[in-house]
């Protein structure tokens, strides 16, 4: 509950610059979620900024969120694209957990977007490697050191979780078989990388929210593009060789890092 309250505070401040223009807010849910989990958040934004159009996209809810991420990107892109066309002054995009990776895929592949503020709430932007409750529920017979046997296969890549499972001890297998995160992060070369990067950096403001009390994203620094090296030592974002994030750092000063246990950092969201 404390984490959600802090999320609401951060979002309230982050959206202050939209108070005059009332840009529409689009929410993309995460794994095993749907619109009903974001009713309070949508209501809070509407009450804080009366007149704001808030939409939680009703696609790939609950168990359907396990569908391959590229499939989800296709569906969300069609829905979000229509909303963008109707918003002449742009939109704010709020993406929760796995939804952050869906948002990245949408922005990478949509021909043109008008996202003003892109807000990632506890999203595994650099991947996931940890035995959290979600993974124990879905993979009861596996532990984190063994999941790659499933995820790094053609069948495994048909499961959303496997699309961002990043085993630091199986780097070669990850780069060879992962067909989503490795492409988005530019860890594997492909002909669309330059165009994807260009579309991503055209956002006006990037807000990354996460923290050590997350309890799901592992390592929690993945919410800031940090991740484990082969010794399971976290390498922070600026040192991490992630093409899209470093490119954005070079081209924009509108990046905000907000740690859940340090609410005073919210002042940087103005």
UniProtKB/TrEMBL annotation:
GO cellular component: lysosome
Highest taxon listed in the record's lineage: Eukaryota
Pfam families noted in UniProt: Palm_thioest
Catalytic activity: S-hexadecanoyl-N-acetylcysteamine + H2O = N-acetylcysteamine + hexadecanoate + H(+)
Record key words, sorted: Glycoprotein, Hydrolase, Lysosome, Signal
GO MF annotations in UniProt: palmitoyl hydrolase activity; thiolester hydrolase activity
E.C. designation(s): 3.1.2.2
Keyword Glycoprotein: yes
Secretion signal, residue range per the UniProt entry: 1-21
Cellular localisation: Lysosome
Stated role: Catalyzes the cleavage of thioester bonds from S-palmitoyl-CoA or S-palmitoyl-N-acetylcysteamine (unbranched structures) but does not have activity against palmitoylcysteine or palmitoylated proteins, branched structures or bulky head groups. Conversely, hydrolyzes both long and short chain fatty acyl-CoA substrate.
PANTHER family (alphabetical): PALMITOYL-PROTEIN THIOESTERASE/DOLICHYLDIPHOSPHATASE 1, ZGC:66024
Family indicated by similarity: Belongs to the palmitoyl-protein thioesterase family.
Protein name stated in the entry: palmitoyl-CoA hydrolase
Organism: Pygocentrus nattereri
Origin organism lineage: Eukaryota, Metazoa, Chordata, Craniata, Vertebrata
């Amino acid at each position: 509950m404390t984490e959600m309250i802090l999320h609401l505070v951060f979002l309230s401040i982050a959206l202050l610059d939209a108070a005059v223009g009332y840009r529409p807010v689009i929410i993309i849910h995460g794994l095993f979620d749907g619109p009903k989990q974001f009713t309070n958040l949508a209501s809070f934004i509407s009450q804080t900024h009366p007149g704001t159009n808030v939409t939680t996209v009703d696609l790939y809810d609950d168990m359907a969120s396990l569908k391959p991420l590229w499939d989800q990107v296709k569906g969300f892109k069609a829905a979000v694209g229509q909303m963008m066309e109707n918003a002449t002054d742009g939109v704010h995009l709020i993406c929760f957990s796995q939804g952050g990776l869906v948002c990245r895929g949408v922005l990478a592949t949509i021909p043109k977007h008008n996202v003003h503020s892109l807000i990632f709430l506890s999203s595994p932007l650099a991947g996931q490697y940890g035995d959290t409750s979600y993974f124990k529920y879905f993979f009861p017979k596996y532990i984190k050191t063994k999941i790659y046997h499933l995820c790094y296969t053609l069948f495994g890549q048909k499961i959303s979780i496997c699309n961002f499972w990043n085993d630091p001890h199986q780097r070669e297998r990850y780069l060879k078989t992962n067909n989503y995160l490795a492409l988005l992060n530019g860890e594997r070369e492909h002909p669309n990388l330059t165009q994807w990067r260009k579309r991503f950096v055209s956002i006006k403001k990037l807000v990354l929210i996460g923290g050590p009390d997350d309890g799901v994203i592992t390592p929690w620094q993945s919410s800031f593009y940090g991740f484990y090296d082969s010794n399971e030592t976290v390498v922070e974002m600026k040192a991490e060789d992630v093409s899209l994030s470093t490119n954005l750092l070079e081209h924009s000063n509108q990046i905000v890092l907000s740690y859940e246990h340090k609410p005073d950092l919210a002042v940087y969201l103005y």
